[in-house]
Amino acid sequence: MEKQSSSGLLLTRKRRRDDSNGETEERERLGKIPRCTVGLKHPAPFADELESDNRPYKRVNMEDAKRGTPADRPVRVYADGIFDVFHSGHARALMQAKCLFPNTHLIVGVCSDNLTNKYKGFTVMNEDERYDAVRHCRYVDEIVRNAPWTLTPEFLTRHRIDFVAHDDIPYSSAGSDDVYKHIKEAGMFAPTQRTEGISTSDIITRIVRDYDLYVRRNLQRGYTAKELNVSFINEKKYNLQERVDKVKKKVRDVEEKSKEFVQKVEEKSIDLIQKWEEKSREFIGNFLQMFGPEGALKHMLKEGKGRMLQAISPRQSPDSSPTREERSPSPTFRLPFFTKTSPPPSPRPHHSGARGYLISEDDDEDEDNDDNDDDN
């Protein structure tokens, strides 16, 4: 629920609530607040410490209060309670009471221990602690100590109260169905909204539910068993449970670390396997490229073998070249001074010595004929 603050800004809340199913509901905060808020530097004063106001008192009606009153005449709103274990629900209720009207002076009444123990029960914080907690709330302007359980007209007049702020749920106590019934009938009641999900009873329930945990925590922080009202046997039991929990925590830590280590090893091994596969494929491809059936080494060997054969054996004649028998006879060459009629000027040289001269068969026949003629 949105309420307007004294600075004129709309504020929203963001709370976490646990429903019956254990699910958490979160309300979003709408908008952002500029950094212009002014915080109080001193706690709220007590009513019995303030100077008395002798001016005549006339109550402000609801219409005038909503319209706005002069600065020197704020609307005096009263909110009371026990405020045990002061929490955000208390602070939100006081904030709503402060923001009911444009110009509000908030008076908060806090009941004493005797009155609270009589009508409601034992409190966690004593009255002085509760007074001090409330007076340090930023929305409070004045504190009334030892506030009455039921508001009387004399009390309202003495503190010059215009309106009483409280949630609209009937509050049955002190033999009455609603202690604010006469305030509502007088037109002095200003309702506020409760903050669901948090209350003093809820906080005490949490402590009771987790009693063993809180006792063990305080024992570890130095509180004695006597201060905590814990027996000797329970003290030893809690100490033993604390040791067992520490051992369990160490075991869980070791398990988590071992899981993280195994996970890292698996990731590293996967990376190494992938890199090894890539390198092995590359190595096998290079090996086949060099030593495979059609690799570079085979071509190099073939080329070397061809060069060796060419070096140790002559080159064969081509198959299309003609044989010796098929060759054409070489043309005869006759010297111009060798004729049939005139004999050679010198004896015929030996056949073996006639180098460079080619003699045909006709010359041989002529020579034979000449020899025969000489014999005759």
Describe this protein's structure:
The protein has 376 residues and is α/β, with parallel strands linked by helices. It is 41% helix and 10% strand. The protein is built from 11 helices and 9 strands. It has helices spanning 62-67, 88-98, 113-119, 127-135, 153-158, 181-185, 200-209, 211-220, 232-291, 296-312, 361-375; strands spanning 3-4, 10-11, 16-18, 24-26, 75-81, 104-110, 142-145, 163-167, 189-192. Strands 7-6-5-8-9 form a 5-stranded parallel sheet. Helix 8 crosses helix 9 (232-291). The longest helix is centred in the C-terminal third of the chain and has 60 residues, at 232-291. The chain is elongated, with a radius of gyration of 62 Å.
Record the strand order, biggest sheet. Answer: 7-6-5-8-9
Briefly note the structural class of the backbone.
Answer: alpha/beta
What is the ordering of alpha helices and beta strands?
A: EEEEHEHEHHEHEHEHHHHH
Largest sheet: 5 strands, parallel
Distance between the first and last residues' Cα:
169 Å
Number of helices: 11
